Automatic annotation (TrEMBL):
InterPro entries reported in the protein's UniProt record: DUF4432, Gal_mutarotase_sf_dom, GH-type_carb-bd
GO annotation terms (biological process): carbohydrate metabolic process
Name assigned to this protein: DUF4432 domain-containing protein
One of the Pfam families matching this protein, by short name: DUF4432
Molecular function as annotated in GO: carbohydrate binding; catalytic activity
Organism, as annotated: Tautonia plasticadhaerens
Length: 389
């Protein structure tokens, strides 16, 4: 299995550009896969590293400079991602003042398909003692210090991109995130495995949220969110206004005020593997996100169907906890407690579907899970899921 190191700051190694394909290795595959790396130039993207992982059908752009997030992707000509008002991205972290805008500076660089939130907290800005925690935490704006790729030289010729990001400071958290992206030539799937390691000498709390963001063609008037749901709680009074139709989406609406729904989902077996899906109105296109509720027990649905220029987008967000104020989540015991040297693992799979039969199969899977439990849908924010009115 050839392994190529692109970044290793411990050994002062960094590669500005790189490209490899099946032909370069003489592998007997006709899927047209490739992995390339380049450094972007100009404007606020100056110095951002971008790795394109293309398996011949599914392409994703990984950003080592932005916490190993995924900027955008493409599957058989359909875009994966959304049109953010941040049109000059991906934005280098040095251009994002996380403390700005009253702690909402994170939004200045937000344009990804996948943005990780955490690791000390993943909710709104909050002042706690002498420390001001900004929106969604710091991890998405910390560059990776180690990046490598691997190509398996035996069938099915798996393609792998790995990176490590440390969120650490003196007198504070010292957490390492080890990320691995995997796909197979010709596949419609991307697998992710994250390991969060407490490198400190004392116990630490972990808050990790996966902010998957999707716009057209998967999001449109009449699109549906599909999942096996145990409970739904609106996070705010504004969300409560639409709780009766939380799983359906409207057309772009300039000035639309976001709605957030906090959920517990139903999964298979002891690990709690569960599918969530955003399905187009006609049922011919869908994005499926699978994960284990034993690893990521809290799920958030973010509805932000504003005008196209403002950000017509929805977020599918599995997490260790809900994106509430840090003090609230700590009081309810939802952070992951890690002893020194202990690791928490989170595994997710992204599937892109473009056949009605495949989409119907996922819907049938969800229906079978849902048959076990009648969902509870609350009509107002309530503890323990959300701060009450």
């Amino acid at each position: 299995m050839p392994q190529i190191t692109l970044t290793d700051l411990a050994h002062d190694l960094w590669t500005e550009s790189f490209a490899i394909s099946a032909a370069d290795l003489g592998l007997p595959t006709d899927q047209g896969w490739s992995i390339s790396k380049r450094t972007l130039r100009g404007g606020r993207r100056e110095g951002v590293d971008l790795i394109r992982l293309h398996n011949g059908q599914l392409s994703i752009d990984i950003l080592p400079t932005r916490g190993m997030g995924i900027w955008r992707g493409q599957f058989r000509g359909d875009r994966l991602g959304w049109s953010s008002p941040v049109v000059d991205g991906p934005v280098h972290p040095s251009q994002v003042n996380l403390a700005g805008l009253g702690g909402f500076g994170w939004l200045d660089g937000f344009d990804e398909l996948l943005a990780r939130c955490g690791l000390e907290h993943n909710g709104p800005p909050i002042q706690e003692g002498p420390f001001a925690h900004g929106l969604h935490g710091r991890i998405q704006n910390i560059p990776a210090h180690s990046v490598s790729i691997q190509i398996c030289d035996t069938p099915p010729y798996e393609l792998i991109v790995e990176g490590q990001v440390d969120e650490a400071r003196l007198f504070g958290l010292r957490m390492r995130m080890k990320t691995r992206y995997r796909t197979v030539p010709g596949s419609n799937r991307l697998s992710i495995r994250d390991e969060f390691v407490n490198l400190g000498d004392r116990p630490a709390r972990l808050a990790a949220l996966y902010h998957w963001n999707l716009g057209p063609p998967y999001l449109e008037q009449g699109s549906r969110f599909v999942a096996a749901i145990r409970s739904v709680v609106p996070q705010t009074p504004r969300a409560a206004e639409g709780v009766g139709r939380f799983d359906t989406f409207g057309a772009p609406e300039p000035g639309f005020a976001e709605q957030v729904y906090l959920m517990e989902l139903i999964g298979h077996g002891t690990e709690g593997s569960t599918p969530t899906m955003l399905r187009s109105a006609s049922g011919d296109k869908a994005v499926v996100l699978r994960f284990a509720t034993s690893q990521l027990p809290c799920f958030t649905l973010w509805k932000n169907t504003m005008g196209p220029g403002e950000g017509y987008v929805t977020g599918l967000e599995p997490a260790t906890n809900y994106p509430n104020p840090r003090t609230f989540e700590r009081r309810h015991g939802r952070f992951v407690e890690l002893a020194p040297g202990e690791t928490h693992v989170a595994e997710l799979t992204l599937e892109i579907l473009d056949h009605p039969q495949a989409i119907a199969s996922v819907e049938a899977e969800v229906e079978a899970l849902q048959a076990r439990v009648s969902p509870t849908v609350l009509d107002s924010p309530q503890e323990p899921h959300a701060p009450g009115p």
